[in-house]
Amino acid sequence: MNRRWRRNHLHHPEEMNITAFMNLMVVLVPFLLITAVFSRMTILHLDLPAEAAGAAPAAKPEFALEVIVRDNRIEVSERGVGGVDIAKQEGAAYDFKKVSGLLQDVKARHPDKTDVTLLVEPDIAYDTMVQVMDTLRVASIDDHGKRVRAELFPDISIGDAPVIVARNR
């Protein structure tokens, strides 16, 4: 009986095998770190227009740039006032160079202005909206033979374009 007791009680417990867990951590930690870095680089900061957020209207109306993307044209205007329409050519894309040139003229008149409201019709493609946003944020300017990027209106607010009501006469 004494031998059995010694054999059973003096036996050392086996060590835990954590090799599989360590392999999982070696793969999982770098994967999570890599995806966290890439997901942060693709975020654009956007704000709601001030009127929609419930802000009190200003006593003196200031310049408010508004860009409306429609199916057949892009409208650049001051809020509530007529502006410039840049028509889309038949079967072609929007003329982003003309839009950029117009925005550069507006920026020259209002150099401290950094915000713009982008209003988009529901059937506009997402890729088109991103191209318009890129055109609003940065312009590529030729400076003595070098291409330089100039900031235009980086603070973009997005909303739905007003519906055009067809009148029957």
What report would you give on this structure?
The chain contains four helices and eight strands, in the order H-H-E-E-E-E-H-E-H-E-E-E. The protein is α/β, with parallel strands linked by helices and about 170 residues long. It folds into two domains: about 1-40; about 45-160. A six-stranded mixed sheet has the order 1-8-5-2-3-4, with helices on one face. A two-stranded antiparallel sheet has the order 6-7. Helix 3 (about 95-110) packs parallel to helix 4 (about 125-135). The mean pLDDT is about 80.
Beta percentage is 15-25%
- Counting DSSP E segments of at least 2 residues, the number of strands comes to 8
Number of domains: 2
What is the H-and-E element order? HHEEEEHEHEEE
Low-confidence stretches: none
Query: What oligomeric state is this?
Result: single chain
Share of helical residues: 25-40%
Tell me the number of helical segments per DSSP (H or I, 4 or more residues long): 4
How does the helix and strand content classify structurally?
alpha/beta
Numbering strands along the chain, what is their spatial order in the largest sheet?
1-8-5-2-3-4
Provide mean pLDDT, rounded.
Answer: 79
How many strands, which pairing sense, and closed or not: the largest β-sheet?
A: 6 strands, mixed
Q: Termini separation (Å)?
A: 112 Å
- Give the CA-based shape: elongated
Radius of gyration: 30 Å
